[in-house]
Amino acid sequence: MSVSEFCHREVVTIQKDECAQEAAKLMRKHHVGNVIIVAEEKGIQKPVGIVTDRDLVVEIMATELDPTVITVGDIMKPDLAAINKNTDILEVIRYMRRKAVRRVPVVDDNMQLFGIVTLDDLLQVLSQEFSSLVKLVEREISKEIQQRP
Q1: Looking at domain 3-147, what is its CATH homologous superfamily?
Q2: pTM above 0.85, yes or no
């Protein structure tokens, strides 16, 4: 199963020069824990960074900086980990573990933002798959009982 099958297509984005307070407002409005910083390049929105709710707390609130002055570009993680939309779910898990991240932007072959996948998404998909396996075992036992009373 590729990540394109279960990633969130609606991604909250912001420009690098927007203030941290605007990022916090977007997170609250959309009930998300991150915003993806995008840069437009030849008509394509390419992800260049990410800011999480934790970044806002640790970098802005805890240091008592003014969130209306500090931009998301100032606090974004610059070495953005992103994956291609055709990446297999197991490779996504390996990649996130290797990069030690809980959220990863998903891009298409042109590096345009396609979606986002989170640890929560992976847990939900995997739990559904495990549930299917459990049902298979139950069905097999039930079938055997019917065939061999």
Answers
A1: CBS-domain (3.10.580.10)
A2: no
